[in-house]
Structures are given as structure tokens and as C-alpha cells.
From TrEMBL:
Signal peptide: none annotated. Keywords: Metal-binding, Oxidoreductase, Zinc. It comes from the Bacteria. Belongs to the zinc-containing alcohol dehydrogenase family. This is Putative zinc-containing alcohol dehydrogenase. Residues 8-340 form the Enoyl reductase (ER) domain. Its cofactor is Zn(2+). It holds the Pfam family ADH_N. One of its GO terms (molecular function) is oxidoreductase activity. The keyword Acetylation does not apply.
Length: 342
């Protein structure tokens, strides 16, 4: 089969790989949708440091959904050939407290597998994964939705879970890319009044379609002052920062209300906190690393029950043979989410 490989310096290629065979406790998934995630761009844009031999290269992509194609030895009857599944894109020992609670990416026994990073990912027709990483996808949700829930949309869900109860409160979402739009959509559905912040007017217009009650164009106004004006001077009780921009993180801290909570999920930025200046504000600043497998199932169920338009996050659908064109466009970050469909 052909699989996509990131070479850095904004280069990708398709390379031949053996068709996967499931080992003990593993399954092979026939991939039907493989989402393109903003974090893939870190591999795509990275300076090339020499391409390893083809046999050692990792297939990229960590937002898979598909159909169970083959069961390995030791897989119990919770999965069957033909099941529709999304993938929690990590695998750990399966025995430690972290793994048993669904946080396999935080395995305390061994370094976890991260599909698409140190284990073959989903930008290929087939994918070999731990059976515990394959989660049932509700019949009413598309494979594209399942792919998004596995990381981008799921990351937004994980951030909201970290913030705690948000129903009836103001929630500010910095950045209205696919993760930010997902946070806007999910927070609104959970009963929050969402204030969407971005530099791009087109993304702000889209955020209204996903449930934002108010928008702030940070390229034309002082975002902190605008948020305070929209919250009667008090500031925001809860903020999610998805852009990964240091300037956005700085504004997010400044825009918090006393006792406010900030959850940071965007990669690439720096969060600085002047303790003397902020001590009396009683702030909570936290990070969130995607979500657990348990939360992934809860997120899918919530989206299913509320009929949320996750499919509308996708602006581009590609075949794997269009990989170079797909990542060239995705690199511009001026549209919605991209996905390879098989």
C-alpha cells in the first residue's frame, strides 16, 4: 500500500509500505477518512534533517476513522469485522492507572505509541492499531466526523472538560480555526454564551454559524478591552486559547475575570504570568492534551445527541494521490479543515 510521509521543508511523498497485519491485541482498520490536523504542520514545516530509510519512516496522520478489517489474536468480542470505528490515536501498556482510565497518552509504564508520530498513522488505506484504541462510531455520524472527534474536535472537548461547568457563563474562544470552531460549537451547545476572537473576518463570520453570540476582530480592535466591554467590565470567567500565538495567550490572561480559568491547547506559543500583577486575581491557567478515550466516546455521543454540524468544519476533501496539493493548501491556514477520504 501507499502511505504519506512528512519530510520537512514543506515536502511530502507517498511511499510503498507492506500491508499491515495485526499482532496480539491489535486490529487492522480500513481507513475511510483521515483528517489533516494543524499539529501535522509542525512535521510538514520542520527543517529537514535527512530522510531515514523507507522501512523506518513513519506514515503520517493521526485523525483516523474507518472499518475494522482484521482482528489479531487475543481481541475480545467487543470488536467485530465490519464495525465502524474512530481511533484514540495513542496506545499504552493497558495496565497502569493512566491507561485504565483512558489516558493512554500518559502511560506511566512505558513510552506510549502516538499514531502518526512514532507509529504508523492514518494517511494510508490501512492502519494497524491496538484494539483498545478503536472506539465505536455512532451510526449517525460520518467517518469524517469521527476523524475530527479523534483529535481536533476532541481537543476542544477536552479543553472544555478541563474548564468545568460552563453552562450559563461567558466563554471566550481565541482562534477560530478547526479546533476553535469546535470549541465554539461545543461550548454553545453546553449552554455557554460564546465570544469568538480571531484576526480573520471570514473565520469570525463562520464562528457565528457554529454558535458564537459575539465576535471580536483582534486585528482591528483591542481584544482585551472588547471582551471586557462585552462582559460589563468584569472580564471572562472561562477562556480557551486555540491559536498557539503568544500574543493571543497574553490577551487571554489579561481578559480573565477574577477567579477566571484559562485552558491553553494551541501549540507554539508561550504563556507568561506575572505573579505580582496577577496574584490577587486568583486565576487558574491550565493546559489540556487532547482527551481520554472515555471522553472521546462521550464527545461523540454528545455530538450525536445534539446533531452538531461537525462535517461543516471540513472545507476540503482530498484523495491520497493529491497529498502534495492538499498540504500546500492546508499550510496556508486560510480555510477550514482538510481530510483524505478513501
Amino acid at each position: 500500500m501507499q502511505g504519506l510521509v512528512f519530510h520537512g521543508d514543506r515536502r511530502v511523498s507517498l511511499r510503498p509500505f507492506p500491508d499491515p497485519k495485526p499482532g496480539e491485541g491489535e486490529v487492522v482498520i480500513r481507513v475511510t477518512a483521515s483528517g489533516m490536523c494543524g499539529s501535522d504542520l509542525h512535521y510538514y514545516r520542520a527543517p529537514a534533517d535527512g530522510t531515514p530509510a523507507a522501512a523506518k519512516v513513519c506514515i503520517g496522520g493521526h485523525e483516523p476513522a474507518g472499518v475494522v478489517e482484521e482482528l489479531g489474536p487475543g481481541v475480545d468480542d467487543s470488536l467485530a469485522i465490519g464495525d465502524r470505528v474512530m481511533i484514540h490515536h495513542y496506545a499504552g501498556c493497558g495496565r497502569c492507572v493512566a491507561c485504565r482510565s483512558g489516558w493512554t497518552q500518559m502511560c506511566t509504564t512505558s513510552a506510549p505509541l502516538v499514531y502518526g508520530k512514532n507509529a504508523h498513522g492514518a494517511h494510508a488505506p490501512f492502519m494497524q492499531v491496538a484494539a483498545r484504541s478503536a472506539l465505536r462510531l455512532p451510526d449517525s455520524l460520518s467517518f469524517e466526523a469521527g476523524a475530527a472527534i479523534g483529535c481536533g474536535t476532541g481537543t476542544a472537548w477536552g479543553a472544555l472538560e478541563r474548564l468545568g461547568e460552563i453552562g450559563g457563563t461567558d466563554v471566550v474562544v481565541f482562534g477560530q480555526g478547526p479546533v476553535g470552531l469546535s470549541a465554539t460549537m461545543l461550548a454553545a451547545a453546553r449552554g455557554a454564551r460564546v465570544i469568538a476572537v480571531d484576526l480573520e473576518p471570514k473565520r469570525l463570520a463562520q464562528s457565528i454559524r457554529f454558535g458564537a453570540a459575539e465576535t471580536v476582530d483582534a486585528g482591528s480592535v483591542d481584544a482585551v478591552q472588547a471582551i471586557k466591554d462585552l462582559t460589563r467590565g468584569s472580564g471572562a470567567p472561562a477562556i480557551v486559547e486555540t491559536s498557539g500565538a503568544t500574543a493571543a495567550a497574553k490577551s487571554a490572561v489579561a481578559a480573565l475575570a477574577p477567579w477566571g480559568r484559562l485552558c491553553v491547547v494551541g501549540l507554539g506559543g508561550t504563556v507568561e504570568l506575572d505573579v505580582r500583577q496577577n496574584l490577587s486575581r486568583q486565576l487558574t491557567v491550565m493546559t489540556s492534551w487532547s482527551l481520554s478515550s472515555v471522553q472521546q466516546l462521550e464527545c461523540a455521543d454528545f455530538i450525536d445527541r445534539h446533531g452538531l454540524p461537525v462535517d461543516d468544519l471540513f472545507s476540503d476533501r482530498w484523495s491520497l494521490g493529491q497529498a502534495e496539493e492538499a498540504y500546500t493548501k492546508f499550510d496556508k491556514q486560510d480555510a477550514g479543515k482538510g481530510v483524505f477520504v478513501f
